[in-house]
Specification:
The complex is a heterodimer.
Chain A lengths: L5 E4 L8 E3 L13 E7 L5 H11 L4 E7 L9 H5 L3 E6 L2
Parallel strand pairs in A: 3-4, 3-5
Chain B lengths: L1 H8 L4 E6 L3 H10 L7 E4 L7 H16 L10 E3 L6 E5 L1 H8 L2 E4 L5 E4 L12 H8 L16 E3 L9 E3 L16 H11 L6 H9 L14 E4 L2 H5 L13 H16 L23 E3 L12 H4 L8 E4 L16 H9 L4 H6 L10 H5 L11 E5 L1 H10 L4 H11 L1 E3 H4 L5 H4 L6 E2 L4 E2 L8 E3 L5 H4 L1 E4 L8 E4 L6 E2 L5
The chains are: A alpha/beta, B alpha+beta.
Chain lengths: ~90, ~500
Amino acid sequence: MEDRVYRCLNPVGMQPPVKTFPLAPRLDTLDGKTIHMSICGEADIWVPLEKKLKAGYPNVNWTVKKRYHIVPMELSEEERKTTDAVILGVCW
Amino acid sequence: MPYLASLEKEGIPTILINFNEETCKVEHDSTIHGIPKLRHIVASRNSVGGVSEAEILIQPVLDALIRPLTDEEQKGGLWAPHEPRILFEGTLPEAEEFYNQTEKIPGMLNAPFARYTDGLPVVIPTEERVETMLKGTSHKPDELITLQRDMEMPGFGVVESTMIRKKGDMIRFMPMYRTATVEQVAVNAVMAGCKQEMFPVVLAIAESGGGTGDGRGAGGAFIISGPIYKEIGMNVTNSIFGPGNPAAKAIGRVGSILWRNLGGYKETVTTITTLGNPIVNGGFVIAEYDEGLPKGWKGLNEELGYRKDESIVMPHPGGLIGEWGIGQQNAPGVYRSLQRTGHGAIARFLDVKGIPGPHNYLEYLTKGAWATRDGGFTLVMPPQVAQDLCDYGFKTKQEVYEWIWKRSFEPVSEFRMRGMQDFITNGWLGIEKTSGKPWKELPNDYMVPAGGDNPFDSYNILLCNMEETAVARFGGGHGPAYSIDAWR
């Protein structure tokens, strides 16, 4: 009995295949660009970071959306048309 | 992560700021959402005021938006891991060694973590055992686990709107968004030690998400209501939460195993929890003894829209929180003294000395219940305590829920000092539900419920067949119901 070979099944669920994409091309410069700060989760380092980014890079058009929740507040379709880059943290 | 993925796919470059122990999960999530090379930067949780941390991060954050992509970051493709149906062939001792193997997880200081189990030895899922388990349902082995009826899911926190789910919707097991067949659930049921007659319950648990939650489900907690408890031999009496009952142990355990195998839970890699949940660790499933209900009091199945003769499983919403022993405690004999002769500590508290009951025990129980926590709770009580409440004047369970909920009201000024509410109210930017007004417009003396959004969702009463007048109290009220009968 101890030598009998058993076929034993797999308990792992099925992973749907995922098409992977290249990242979006990066910016050539920050000047004159619209960069969006997507703040979610606890405020944490965003309190000083938001101030420093705005003060240190006045040639950037900074936009901000804040949400205390772990789910970020998203840019609308219209807003995305005029947004050049997004900095998101600390949740995702 | 879906948001970041959509931005990158639309041509908007992004950079994610995360915390150190989250890096593995970030890389995992970004792969699942199709952007495996997502740029991210680690920040410290601990820098005081965040000022020095902000100084450190500014350049790397901005650099990530302008530094040209590498060859790897410009690649697309397909991520399609495949799991074979037969995982292992060998003798039983070899299979035991294989299924009970562990791996070391760096994020857990290289503590061993079970690859296929909840950390305890499992019953080996041989083809023969799985075939036997599958006889417990009329559903085909290759049928995907889907929702068996249309359902409304209430909103929570910032997600205020009700979500409608449709019959036939695929069930996704988190955190890996996996799907599963009836056979794969059967494999896990065998491993947990379930018997064939328990399988419809396990399938209903799988339909509810299998205890995976949003990926941090901890295996879940489940309440069974309906005649099935007798068929599968669940204990609804003394030691309802204790060891010894095979059905309670095996079914209670299955959520953790589903979380591991169907959901893909791997601590600090695919999910990051905080401390875990001791209440559900090892399994939490109980069944209701509805035969002891006072006249006019509904069973859980009836409360959730089913008939008395229908069997359901309800994922218990308190399963994630894991609070136990809420409210004022007392020895069972002190309760009896209160109701029989009007003596003892509770009688002194209620100022009914020498007056036999029925008295409202809830006045005693709920004193201070929200001093250090918010939300509702479930009471598990013997028939005598339920009858005393009914005799006192609570002619339905709903009347009890409403009484308790109203007792939890407090001024906004106090409510604003509750640690969970900063998160639940989205930093107080949302709408307070009893007034319909923005939180920020409410005066400090406006009274709001600390004990949950509404009586029914926040509270629950279940009976267990016991003579001793003890009452168990744990966090969570009502949740959605899933039909066990649909899986017979």
